[in-house]
Amino acid sequence: MVQKYQSPVRVYKHPFELVMAAYERRFPTCHLIPMFVASDIVDEEASEDGSTHKIERRCALDVDAPRLLKRIAGVDYVYFIQRNTLNRKERTLHIESHNETFSNRVIIHETCCYSVHPENEDWTCFEQTASLDIKSFFGFESTVEKIAMKQYASSIKKGKEIIEFYLKELEDEGITHVPRWTTSSLPLPPPRPTSLTTSPPVLPKPPVTPAIAIPLPADAKNSATQDDKLDADYIKRYLGDLTPLQESCLIRLRQWLQETHKGKIPKDEHILRFLRARDFNMDKAREILCQSLTWRKQHQVDYLLETWTSPQVLHDYYTGGWHHHDRDGRPLYILRLGQMDTKGLVRALGEESLLRHVLSINEEGLRRCEENTKVFGRPISCWTCLVDLEGLNMRHLWRPGVKALLRIIEVVEANYPETLGRLLILRAPRVFPVLWTLVSPFIDENTRKKFLIYAGNDYQGPGGLVDYIDKEIIPDFLGGECMCEVPEGGLVPKSMYRTPEELENEDVRLWTETIYQSASIFKGAPHELLIEIIDASSVITWDFDVCKGDVVFNIYHSKRAPQPPRKDPLGAHGITSPGGNNVQLIDKSWTLGQDYSMVESPLTCKEGESVQGSHITRWPGFYILQWKFHSMPACSATNLPRVDDVLATLQVSSHKCKVMYYTEVLGSEDFRLVAVALAISSLSFFKQTESII
User: Fold this and answer.
1) Residue 151 above 90 pLDDT?
2) Where is this region: Disordered (predicted)?
């Protein structure tokens, strides 16, 4: 497996020329990097005007590896080739390096770039990408990979410190300014002489090994603009202390979302939560994040706080609410579960209304975390929940109530990972172990580690509540002096109970309040949507997400209406699909080019992509939007499929794909008005920005 690294943008608040003078002092050796024992210049050239300087070095590293492994490998040092291209006119330094030792077994490739900060020409930016691919290593592939990743992470962490050290050294020597290059400029001052009393070891030429091309990984190329890149200082201020490899995972997943979701990017804190939930395994985090984004879009969760109005019964009998913050600045939510009539709430509201209310609480929690991050000046990405169980009894173990609780836990765990920083359970009664046995299997192990359980009045002693919450804000019902506005609850009047039929209809209505539809696509059975256009020059717009598999999107036009849609019963494929349908409109007897025509080029869409677009109709008639299963190209002797494509094909269960889509038809006049409004809004925004600048 290829290991990849992408750094954030690191900023030196010093001019480019001064940073370059500090950088040159790292050679031929650097006492701050003990493993970097020597370097020799093997090639050097400069342009006639001195604006460009290219230098190639051969560097020796004393890798911290077990002695046995070094003896088996038969080497003491690992040699790298580093090629630097300094452009003084453009004020950039491009660095490319790769391993010379064991290049037929291990491929290491690194690129770095120093450049001028886009918003401050007296600052310097630094970016770095790298890849590691271990083909074979005497049966020690896993060990070598761990050693390489550990040492590389350590060197990344030291990189900025080393430049800062030499910048300070220059300042101590009285060098605080290096003039920029001009046509009459001299080259940069040479590096200071090495202070070593002994010369570095002479680098012997190793045996010649077959050359291997080392192309830059495709996903290491940052296609985002400078404004889209993450700054290291921003990460530390708003996201917290991350290791270099954790920063790399965040940047690469964020970049993947930018490329596939076309601007619909969740906040960095949100992405980071999913990475933490899967221990920074990018593939696993990407999978659950895409599922969650699809869920949020389908149920319009992003607009929940603006659109959801909780029923009065929740205001009166739901015993939960926000209450200041804990000692770490996390928002504090209090839930008096023992005083809550869970049976009455479920009978009066239904499971789905309770779920939507809990989702609104989580959305409010995310908003409060952002606010507290600004207020306290440090990253706050989760909240603390205090659950008071006084009054908990067998009534709370009512089966439909427990079922609703488990459903809520399941949805919250899937879509709000790593939002719970700490859970304080107070006054746990004897019946609590029964409830815990039922609920705990549905709670993630990392989440369970955050639970602190106190029986009786134990929370009042040492190691209790005052260790996590300031004494001044402990609620009055727990012996504190702070008035708490959380409702006291009580029994929900039976007159407010609703019949099972009413609750079922309400539940269906709540979760079908979405403008999106779902469809299943099979090999040989596309999903097709008919749109009749009366006026030419109308505009068909679409917005769809590819939830599973890869699909091809087509748009066709026909002057005659197709036969009534035939739905694939799904039974022919041996699959049931409760959340999606499959409709086919184009008759098999129709001929493309005679009975119907293609009006847009086919668009291949990968799993996880979010696609938006529009088509201006040229003729009235019937337009058919089609989502078709994307088949892999046939294998040939000269054009073999990629391994990744073969694996992707195998992962598509039973040749099934799934999309979630929304379409709308706008009149040409309406479309022009929308376009004009957007243009005016954009112009107004840019004018305001200019005035601020």
Assistant:
1) no
2) 181-204, 562-581
pLDDT value at 558 more than 60: yes
Residue 503 three-state SS: helix
**C-alpha angle 324-330-335 in degrees, rounded to nearest 5:** 60
How far is the C-alpha of 601 from the C-alpha of 630, rounded, in Å? 15
187 band by pLDDT with thresholds 50, 70 and 90: low
Q: Answer yes or no: do 38 and 118 share one domain.
A: yes
Q: How far is 76 from 206, CA to CA, in rounded Å?
A: 11
Rounded CA-CA distance 622/617 in Å is 10
H or E stretch including 404? Answer: helix 399-415
User: In the predicted model, is pLDDT for residue 409 greater than 70?
Assistant: yes
Question: Is 479 buried (19+), middle (13-18) or exposed (0-12) by CB count in 10 A?
Answer: exposed
Neighbours of 523 (CB within 10 A): 16
Lowest mean pLDDT among 147-156, 158-167, 359-368, 610-619: 147-156
Closest CA to 232 of 9, 529, 470: 9
Do residues 305 and 363 touch, judged by C-beta distance below 8 A?
A: yes
The single-letter DSSP state of residue 335 is E
- Between the CA of residue 599 and those of 328, 593, 603, 672, what are the distances in Å? 58, 11, 12, 21
Q: What is the CATH number of the domain that holds 554?
A: 2.60.120.680
Q: Determine contact, residues 212/104, Cβ cutoff 8 Å.
A: yes
The highest-confidence range among 111-115, 307-311, 455-459, 603-607, by mean pLDDT, is 111-115
Instruction: Retrieve residue 561's tokens.
Output: 């209406």
Sign of CA dihedral 263, 267, 273, 279: positive
Given 173, 192, 210, which residue is the final one in a domain? 173
448 confidence band (pLDDT: 50, 70, 90): confident
Phi, psi dihedral angles at 157 (to 5 degrees) = -60, -35
261 lies in some domain: yes
CA 396 to chain centre: 38
**Enclosing domain of residue 594:** 517-562+582-632+653-673
Q: Are residues 483 and 529 in the same domain?
A: no
Q: In angstroms, how far is CA 114 from the centroid of its own chain?
A: 26
d(CA 486, CA 476): 11
> Taking residues 15-19, what's their average pLDDT?
95
